[in-house]
Amino acid sequence: MQVETRSVDQRTTQHRASKSRAEEFMKRRRRNNIIIALVAICVVAFLIFNIASCAFKSFASATMALNNEDVKKELVVAKENEPYYILLAGLSNYDQSSEAASYLAVLRIDEQNKSFSLMNIPSNIMCTYDQGTQDLLRNAPRYGGEAELVRKAKEQTGIDFAHYLRITEEGLKTLVDDIGGVQVNVEYRLDDPRVGHVVIPPGEQTLSGEQAVAFVSATNYQGGRTQRTANQMEFFFDLINKMTSSEGIGWINDSDVISNAIKTDLSYDTLSALAAMYGQGASFYTALMPGSQYTVNNVVCFSPNSKAWEQMRGRFMNGEDVNTSIDTSGIDKSKLSIVVYNGTGSDGFAAQAAQILQSKGYTVQETGNADSAVYTETLVIYKDTEDEAAAEAIVADLGVGRAVYASVYYNLKTDIQVVVGSDWKPVR
Predict the structure, then answer these.
(1) Strand runs labelled E in 1-63
(2) What is the arithmetic mean of pLDDT over 23-35?
(3) Local structure of 295: helix, strand or coil
(4) What is the DSSP letter of 125?
(5) Which residues form the domain of 283?
(6) 75 and 27 share a domain?
(7) What is the C-alpha separation between 120 and 130, in angstroms, rounded?
(8) Contact 84, 109 (CB under 8 A)
(9) Is the dihedral of CA 274, 61, 173, 92 positive or negative?
(10) Alpha carbon distances (Å) from 141 to 62, 93, 162, 258, 359
(11) Does 49 have pLDDT greater than 60?
C-alpha cells in the first residue's frame, strides 16, 4: 500500500491532490451533508412531535422496527440512570459506485441531566477488515452488513452503543415532496453543476425535494462551505416551521414518511421520553471528531488526531461542551514562526491575512500561493501539540479558520502554517 505523507509546505495535503480528485472528495462530502440534514430532521421531528395516538404508536413502532438480530447483538444494555449512546447512520445503496454509509455520528443521551450531545464521525477513516483488507469505515456494511458498521464505529470511537438508528438519503427528497415543499429565503443564486442541474434564483422560494437536496449541498459560492452551512441551517429551521404549522401537523398525523424512512431498535416510548426531555429545554451540544486528511492510493482518508480525540472524547462522554475554547492567554506571539499561503484562486488573500497577523503582533516569515486553489476553509496548522493554543489564538485573531494538528501528515518548517481558504472575507 502506498501512503502519501509529504509535507504541507510542498502542498501535499488532500487539497494538494489534483483538482479533479479534490472535487470528487468534496462531492462526497456534499452527499454526507444531505444525510446529516436528514438524520437531524428525523430525530428532531420525533422529539418535537410526541404523538399520543395509540393507532399511530402501534403503526410507527412496527414500521420503524430494525429487525436485524446481528446488529442487536452488537448493542449493549443501557445502565439505569446513566448516559447512553446511539449510533446514527445514513446509508446508501450498496453498489460499488457509491458509499455504503455516507454519514455516521454518535448521539449521547443523558436523561438525568437533560442533555444531548452529537459527535460526527468522519466516514472515511481507514479500517482493517477480515483477512487484513484495508478499506474505509463507510464501506463496512459491504463486509458484514450493518453489524460490521456498528463494530467498526465502536472500534474507532471506543464507545459502546446501546441503540442504533439508520436512515436513507432518498428520504429527504420524499419528505419535502410529501409536505408540499419548503419555503426558504435563497440568499444567493444556486447553480452548482457538481450537485445536479438545479438552478434556484435568489429570494423567497418553495423548494421541491430535488431542489432541497441541491440547496443543502451546493458550495460554489464565494463563502464556499460557510455559505452552505448557512443554507443548511436556513433549510432545517424552515422545514421544522413547515412541519409544526397547522398544515404540517395534519400531514404528520396521517403520513408514514418518517416512520418508513428510518429503522431503529428504539421504542416509541423511548422516543416519547426523549420528546419530553427535549421540550423541557435540554441542552444540545455538537462536535466533529478532530483529525486531518491524507491520501492512500488516490483515496482521500481521515486520520483522527489521537491526542485531541482522547481529550475531546473525555469531555463528550462527560456531557461537556466539547467546543469550549482553549485558553490562549499567555501566548508570546512574537516568538512564533509563521508562514501564510493562499489556497484560493483570488489574488492577495495571503498578504491580507499576513497583514492582520502582523498587526496583532505575530511574525510572518513568508507569504505565497499554495500549489492548488481548492481550499474551501482556512487551515491553521500547528507543528507541535504545545502550539495548539497559539493556533487557536491565530484563528481568533483572523476571525476565520480551523486549527489542525500536523501529526505525521504534515512536515512544517515553521511553528504555524496558515493556508487561506475560500471562507476568507476579503479586506476592503
Answers:
(1) 3-4
(2) 42
(3) strand
(4) B
(5) 17-179+255-317
(6) yes
(7) 26
(8) yes
(9) positive
(10) 24, 10, 19, 23, 52
(11) no
Judge if 410 and 275 occupy the same domain: no
Check which CATH number belongs to the domain holding 341 and give it.
Answer: 3.30.70.2390
123-179 confidence digits (pLDDT tens): 889 999 988 899 999 899 999 999 999 999 999 999 999 999 887 767 777 778 878
Final residue of a structural domain among 317, 336, 364: 317
Calpha distance 360→172 (Å, rounded): 46
**Could you tell me if 262 and 401 lie in one domain?**
no
- Number of folded domains in the chain? 2
Task: Give the predicted TM-score (pTM) of the model.
Answer: 0.63
Instruction: Tell me: do 30 and 126 sit in the same domain.
Output: yes
Domain finish residue from 277, 292, 317: 317
* Residues 403 and 368 grouped into a single domain: yes
pLDDT 10s digits, 64-90:
788 889 999 999 999 999 999 999 887
Grid cell at residue 66: 430494525
